[in-house]
Amino acid sequence: EIVLTQSPATLSLSPGERVTLSCRASQSVGTSLAWYQHKPGQSPRLLIFDASYRATGIPARFSGSGSGTDFSLTISSLEPEDFAIYYCQQRTNWPRTFTFGPGTKVDIK
Amino acid sequence: QVQLVQSRADLQKPGASVRVSCRSSGYTFTSYGINWVRQAPGQGLEWIGWINTYNGNTNYAQSLQDRVTITTDTSTSTAYMELRSLKSDDTAIYYCARDRCAACSGFDYWGQGTLLTVSS
């Protein structure tokens, strides 16, 4: 089973700052990786699919990169609404299964 | 517009079973797989399982495969997640979520979540 590790666990930042979140897989997942934003009381929101493609309606300040075992999500300039928990998720093709990372909480300094 | 609407919150006793529903609209139901994900209090997201809505094939998380069954009713565009032999650890918000596409990563639309509380 593929295990995802996210770092750091928590970040305290100010609006306007640039942030890069890391996700590492225990074995290669190619580019079968997605990123989600999750706020309390809401359903998760897909930000990035296939490692680097922004989902529909996602602002350009969000970008994803990486392949194999090392991935990152970058927010170029934090907006007040970006303070949330961010999860990475990998997909295994056969059998078709998914795993989430433990999450990175981005909160306001 | 695409919508996934889930059944309301539920309270069950340990050892019981529960079935959560997820009614889809705004797209062709059998063209996209449906996944179930849960979040226990204070915990992260956990993938439960997936169903191919076209042919009914399923895959489940190893940790739950003995207790969970996902099914669909294509006549009503509804997916169901049944969880048996409930434990207090199953207390969580349960979400259904649509595959973005068959051969790619990501769940693009999510239900509003169903809170399941397991308590005696």
User: What structural class do the secondary elements of chain A suggest?
Assistant: mainly beta
Shape of chain A: globular
Question: Which whole number gives the mean pLDDT of chain A?
Answer: 96
Which structural class fits the helix and strand makeup of chain B? mainly beta
Sketch the topology of chain B as an H/E string, one letter per element.
EEEEEEEEEEE
The mean pLDDT of chain B is 97
Q: Greatest contact pair?
A: A-B, 31 and 22 residues
User: β content of chain B, as a range?
Assistant: over 45%
Share of residues in helices of chain A: under 10%
The number of distinct β-strands of chain A equals: 11
State the end-to-end distance of chain B. Answer: 40 Å
Q: How far apart, in Å, are the first and last alpha carbons of chain A?
A: 36 Å
Number of strands of chain B: 11
- How many whole angstroms does the radius of gyration of chain B measure? 14 Å
What does this protein structure show overall?
- The complex is a heterodimer of chains A (109) and B (120).
- In chain A, strands 2, 4, 5, 6, 9, 10 and 11 form a 7-stranded mixed sheet that branches.
- Chain A has strands spanning 4-7, 10-13, 19-25, 33-38, 45-49, 53-54, 62-67, 70-75, 84-92, 97-100, 104-108.
- Chain A is globular, with a radius of gyration of 13 Å.
- Chain A is mainly β.
- Chain A is 0% helix and 53% strand.
- In chain B, strands 2, 4, 5, 6, 9, 10 and 11 form a 7-stranded mixed sheet that branches.
- Chain B has 120 residues and is an all-beta fold.
- The model of chain B has no long low-confidence stretch (mean pLDDT 97).
- Chain B starts with a strand and ends with a strand.
- Chain B has no helices and 11 strands.
- In chain B, a hairpin with a 7-residue loop joins strand 9 and strand 10 (107-110).
- Helices cover 0% and strands 50% of the residues of chain B.
- Chain B is globular, with a radius of gyration of 14 Å.
- Chain A binds chain B through residues 1, 31-34, 36, 38, 43-46, 48-51, 55-56, 85, 87, 89-91, 95-103, and chain B through 35, 37, 44-47, 50, 59, 61-62, 95, 97, 100, 104-108, 110-113.
